[in-house]
Amino acid sequence: MHVLVLGASGRTGSLVVSQALQRKDRVTALVRNPDKFQPAGVNLNDPLLRVIKGTPVDKADLRKAFSGYKIDGVVVALNSTRPNDMPWTKPTSPTNMIETAVNNVVAEMTVAGTKRISLVSSWGVGSSYPTTPFPVRIAMMYTNLNYTHQALTLAEEALFKAPPGIEWAIARPSALGDGKPDGQYKVTDDCRGCRWAVDRALVARFCLDALQKDDWVNKAVVVT
């Protein structure tokens, strides 16, 4: 399988890259600054890895990412840009940045004949909002988390409107942690028994699994 990763420089996206390479998949990573692209445990000279400079909000850059090889699936692990890693910090990127990237990549997928795409969203977006604890809902309403919530809502809606033939899966992880990729993720619709946090490595694994399995085609699920 050849996987295109958007958001490959991020903490979740970099794990998607490393896990895909461990599976012996071919990976194309579209990154704004290749000089700063150093995912842990990844040999940048790996013949299975191709790094393309660019941004998914630029259609020409995405076209480059799709050129030369047949892309079998796409993982979108983008997040709102902030001046630091604190989730409470106000994003500097436009609210529609991820939505634009999703629309652009779906258009390229349609041309290239690529079917599968998985998106890293968040618990609390869309139909999962009522299942979140009350303090989380308050935070989404009255803190800068609201910007991320809006951005991911728009991104999800873009996938909901994808043309026939595009098979998408949306991961809505609970709070993301940085643990080891051991154990197993849990997928649920109603979030009964949800853990408050899930390792990024497990979310990365789910996103790659969703490109190959039919279990979550055209579904948005909580991953915990």
Q: Concise description?
A:
It comes from Calocera viscosa (strain TUFC12733). With 224 residues, the protein is of the alpha/beta class.
Defining traits:
globular; single chain; NAD(P)-bd_dom; Rossmann fold; 6 helices; 224 residues; NAD(P)-binding protein
Structure description:
The protein is built from six helices and ten strands, in the order E-H-E-E-H-E-H-E-H-H-E-E-E-E-H-E. It is of the alpha/beta class. It has one domain: NAD(P)-binding Rossmann-like Domain (Rossmann fold, 3-Layer(aba) Sandwich), CATH 3.40.50.720. Strands 3-2-1-4-5-6-10-8 form an eight-stranded mixed beta sheet, with helices on both faces. Strands 7-9 form a two-stranded parallel sheet. Strand 4 (73-76), helix 3 and strand 5 (116-120) form a beta-alpha-beta unit. Helix 1 (13-22) packs across helix 6 (200-210) and helix 4 packs across helix 5. The longest helix has 16 residues, at 97-112. The two termini are 26 Å apart. InterPro entries: NAD(P)-bd_dom, NAD(P)-bd_dom_sf.
Q: Tell the overall outline.
A: globular
Within CATH, the superfamily carries the name: NAD(P)-binding Rossmann-like Domain
Question: What is the name of the CATH topology?
Answer: Rossmann fold
The CATH class = Alpha Beta
From the N-terminal CA to the C-terminal CA, the straight-line distance is: 26 Å
> What proportion of the residues is helical, as a percent range?
25-40%
Unreliable residue stretches? none
Order of helices and strands: EHEEHEHEHHEEEEHE
Total helical segments: 6
Mean pLDDT: 92
CATH architecture: 3-Layer(aba) Sandwich
Gyration radius, rounded? 16 Å
Structural class designation? alpha/beta
Number of strands: 10
Protein name: NAD(P)-binding protein
Organism: Calocera viscosa (strain TUFC12733)
Domain NAD(P)-binding: 7-213
InterPro entries: NAD(P)-bd_dom, NAD(P)-bd_dom_sf
